């Protein structure tokens, strides 16, 4: 086993630990943050079922983004939908045997990869070309786009230019999951791709990418509009209320 | 900041735990595709190259043969099949009675890659190769 294989094995164990632990810590923080007021953005659903449907629309269709502006919605949706299919394509490296429906999705992941990069390109052009967006853009906004674009490009480089031994790559990841590290092919583009992905996993719990779990904890989206039917009382406010 | 330190400590703990499990030598077999060893001394290119680029060679060969009319033998699919067919199945896609997978199908299924060649082309060796194989003791 080469040193590089062991370094990457350690890197991915650490990256998974930080990603899972960090997300759990963040989600706990979000879940414990009090929502003192009923502040759903109206028109809002009046039942919990309706809220579930509203959140589902936010997750799948980016409804709020669409209402905010079609260009941002288009690029963001293209990127996220592409990314979802690309992630499904990569699931083949982690399950054995590959499920039949997954084998069907795998080739679609290539087209999704192009959609993903097109979306990222659009988002980046928007950040540079739209003056008011450029004004509020921070280095981390650009770096996150750069990281995602670099991951996509290095992936495509392996698809079309410098192939790697995908059978050995799958054995490497199955080995990680079975705590039985296997050698990783010594291909520079593969190393670059995996390093960038590990970096993404490591920064995820400390970055703007937290909008993924954060969406579910947004009071303006996750509250039903039932302030006429039920009094909203935050737990910490109840004692104050009784003294009045 | 204090929280980030706690997090780093937790990550280290998990990594250390994993290291202990590894060191204790848990036998967890990593599944890999299983197929018969192909015949012959060596392939038309070296193994590391073939594992990464066999599909490029085949597409290139198709373009040369079908579109440009140049028929050469070096990277011909029929030659691949002659050497790589299973010892008992005489096929590169059929599963053997001993559980061995076809030389092509095993890896293609393992990584979920389509295998369209044999929708049209034969997955079994040509008559001459089969006869030669049967003559051998």
Detailed description of the structure:
The complex is a heterodimer of chains A (244) and B (137). Chain A is mainly α. Chain A has 13 helices and no strands. In chain A, α1 packs parallel to α10 and α8 packs antiparallel against α10. Chain B has 137 residues and is an all-alpha fold. Chain B has one domain (2-135). The longest helix of chain B is centred in the N-terminal third of the chain and has 22 residues, at 2-23. Chain B is extended. Chain A binds chain B through residues 10, 13-14, 17-18, 21-22, 25, 92-93, 96-98, 102-103, 106-107, 163-168, 170-171, 174-175, 178-182, 205-206, and chain B through 3-4, 7, 10-11, 14-15, 18, 21-22, 26-33, 48, 51-53, 56, 107, 109-114.
The structure class of chain B reads mainly alpha
- Give a count of the beta strands of chain B, DSSP E runs of length 2 or more: 0
Q: List the uncertain runs of chain A.
A: none
Number of strands of chain A: 0
Short account of what is shown:
Chain A is mostly helical and 244 residues long. Chain A has 13 helices and no strands.
From the structure above, extract its key features.
heterodimer; A: 244 residues; B: mainly alpha; 6 helices; 0% strand
Helix-strand blueprint:
The complex is a heterodimer of chains A (244) and B (137).
Chain A: H1 3-32, H2 48-61, H3 63-68, H4 70-90, H5 100-105, H6 108-129, H7 131-136, H8 139-160, H9 166-177, H10 188-203, H11 211-214, H12 219-222, H13 238-242
Helix pairs in contact in A: 1-10, 4-6, 6-8, 8-10
Chain B: H1 2-23, H2 47-67, H3 77-84, H4 103-110, H5 117-120, H6 127-135
């Amino acid at each position: 086993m080469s040193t590089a294989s062991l370094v990457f094995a350690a890197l991915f164990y650490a990256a998974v630990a930080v990603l899972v632990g960090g997300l759990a810590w963040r989600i706990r923080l979000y879940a414990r943050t009090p929502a003192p007021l009923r502040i759903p953005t109206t028109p809002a659903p009046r039942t919990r079922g309706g809220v579930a449907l509203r959140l589902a629309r936010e997750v799948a269709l980016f409804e709020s983004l669409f209402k905010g502006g079609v260009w941002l919605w288009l690029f963001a949706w293209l990127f996220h939908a592409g990314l979802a299919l690309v992630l499904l394509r990569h699931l083949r490296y982690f399950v054995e045997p590959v499920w039949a429906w997954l084998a069907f999705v795998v080739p679609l992941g290539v087209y999704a990869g192009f959609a993903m990069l097109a979306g990222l390109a659009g988002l980046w052009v928007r950040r540079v070309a739209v003056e008011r967006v450029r004004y509020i853009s921070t280095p981390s906004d650009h770096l996150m786009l750069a990281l995602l674009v670099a991951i996509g490009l290095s992936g495509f480089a392996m698809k079309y230019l410098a192939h790697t031994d995908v059978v050995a790559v799958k054995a490497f990841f199955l080995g990680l999951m079975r705590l039985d590290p296997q050698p990783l092919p010594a291909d520079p583009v593969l190393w670059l791709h995996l390093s960038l992905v590990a970096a993404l996993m490591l920064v995820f719990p400390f970055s703007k990418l937290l909008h993924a779990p954060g969406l579910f904890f947004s009071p303006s989206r996750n509250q039903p509009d039932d302030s006429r039917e039920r009094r909203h009382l935050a737990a910490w406010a109840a004692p104050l209320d009784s003294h009045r | 900041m204090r929280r980030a330190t706690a997090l780093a400590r937790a990550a280290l703990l998990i990594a250390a735990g994993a290291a202990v499990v590894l060191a204790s030598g848990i036998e967890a077999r990593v599944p890999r595709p299983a197929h018969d060893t192909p015949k012959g001394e060596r392939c038309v290119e070296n193994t590391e190259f073939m594992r990464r680029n066999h599909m490029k060679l085949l597409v290139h060969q198709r373009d040369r043969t079908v579109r440009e009319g140049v028929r050469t033998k070096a990277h011909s699919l029929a030659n691949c099949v002659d050497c790589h067919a299973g010892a008992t199945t005489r096929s590169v896609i059929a599963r053997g009675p001993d559980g061995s997978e076809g030389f092509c199908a095993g890896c293609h299924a393992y990584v979920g890659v389509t295998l369209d060649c044999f929708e049209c082309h034969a997955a079994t060796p040509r008559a001459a190769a089969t006869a030669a194989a049967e003559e051998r003791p």
